[in-house]
């Protein structure tokens, strides 16, 4: 069985500061990992994904994440927060081809302080 | 850019009534999914669908739920007799390769 833990249901950072959203996973097979963003009253938009290629993955809007197998982590970062980054962020894991259902974490609500 | 669409955006129904939530996946995708998100909780997998049959379903997806692809474009989720605890946001997704693309969701409120 697979699972995802997102530490911190709410994170606040100042505009221009580093954004770090934590995600740890559990999977019995090499995982596929995803970060999705949900803006208010909207659906889930893919930010980036790791599917067994490069461990440092770059996504949209300046976000990136690094897959660390030894730490079973896939933390999301952005060097400089922007007001438009305020949203809910979900980390998700799947077992890849043959079992693509996504298992989501509980989400982290990111607030940007002007 | 192609996107997944869902209708209605908000559905209010009485307990015990049947509801059908509709989704139009991205046109060349072959794999479809339904997820739900109860307010304040995580997004949960309900069911996956491929080649006109269910590939996998979760424990949540009991006999009250069914899915159908009635034509070449729509993908529906039916809840036969709604319960209060079915109140949630329901997301449809379609997949190409390793990536699932989500619709904007239907908020279902059961009174």
Task: Describe this structure as you would to a colleague.
Chain A is mainly beta and 114 residues long. Chain A is 0% helix and 51% strand. In chain A, strand 8 and strand 9 form a beta hairpin. The radius of gyration of chain A is 13 Å and the shape is globular. By secondary structure, chain B is an all-beta fold. Chain B is globular, with a radius of gyration of 13 Å. The mean pLDDT of chain B is 94. The A-B interface holds A 32, 34, 36, 42-46, 49, 51, 90, 92, 94, 96-97, 99-107 and B 4, 6, 31, 33, 35, 41-45, 48, 56, 58, 91, 93, 95, 98-105.
Write the layout of secondary structure elements.
The complex is a heterodimer of chains A (114) and B (111).
Chain A: E1 3-5, E2 10-14, E3 19-21, E4 24-26, E5 32-38, E6 44-50, E7 56-58, E8 64-68, E9 73-78, E10 87-94, E11 103-104, E12 108-113
Parallel strand pairs in A: 2-12
Antiparallel strand pairs in A: 1-4, 3-9, 5-6, 5-10, 7-8, 8-9, 10-11, 10-12
Chain B: E1 5-7, E2 10-13, E3 19-24, E4 31-37, E5 43-50, E6 53-57, E7 65-68, E8 75-79, E9 88-96, E10 99-102, E11 106-110
Parallel strand pairs in B: 2-11
Antiparallel strand pairs in B: 1-3, 3-8, 4-5, 4-9, 5-6, 7-8, 9-10, 9-11
Largest sheet of chain A: 6 strands, mixed
Order of helices and strands of chain A: EEEEEEEEEEEE
Strand/helix succession of chain B: EEEEEEEEEEE
- Oligomer state equals heterodimer
Which whole number gives the mean pLDDT of chain B?
A: 94
Runs of chain A with pLDDT <50, length 5+?
A: none
Overall geometry of chain B comes to globular
How big a fraction of the residues of chain B is strand?
over 45%
How many beta strands in the DSSP annotation of chain A? 12
Structural class of chain B, by secondary structure, is mainly beta
Distance between the termini of chain B: 37 Å
Share of residues in strands of chain A: over 45%
Q: Give the mean pLDDT of chain A.
A: 92
Shape of chain A: globular
How many DSSP E strands of chain B? 11
What is the structural class of chain A? mainly beta
Main sheet specs of chain B: 7 strands, mixed
Number of helices of chain A: 0
């Amino acid at each position: 069985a697979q699972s995802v833990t997102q530490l911190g249901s709410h994170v606040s950072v100042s505009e221009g500061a580093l954004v770090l959203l934590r995600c740890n996973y559990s999977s019995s097979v090499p995982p596929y990992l995803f970060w999705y963003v949900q803006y208010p009253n909207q659906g889930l938009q893919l930010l980036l994904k790791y599917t067994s290629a490069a461990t440092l993955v770059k996504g949209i809007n300046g976000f990136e994440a690094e897959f660390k197998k030894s730490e079973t982590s896939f933390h999301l970062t952005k060097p400089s927060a922007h007001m438009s980054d305020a949203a809910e962020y979900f980390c998700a894991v799947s077992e890849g081809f043959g079992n693509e259902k996504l298992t989501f974490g509980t989400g982290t609500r990111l607030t940007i302080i002007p | 850019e192609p996107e997944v669409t869902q209708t209605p955006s908000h559905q209010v129904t009485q307990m015990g009534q049947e509801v059908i939530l509709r989704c139009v996946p991205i046109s060349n995708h072959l794999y479809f999914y339904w997820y739900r998100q109860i307010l304040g909780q995580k997004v949960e997998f309900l069911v996956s669908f491929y080649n006109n049959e269910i590939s996998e379903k979760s424990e949540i997806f009991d006999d009250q739920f069914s899915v159908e692809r009635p034509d070449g474009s729509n993908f529906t989720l039916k809840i036969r007799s709604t319960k209060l605890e079915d109140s949630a946001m329901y997301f449809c997704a379609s997949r190409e390769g390793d990536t699932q693309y989500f619709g904007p969701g239907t908020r279902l409120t059961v009174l």
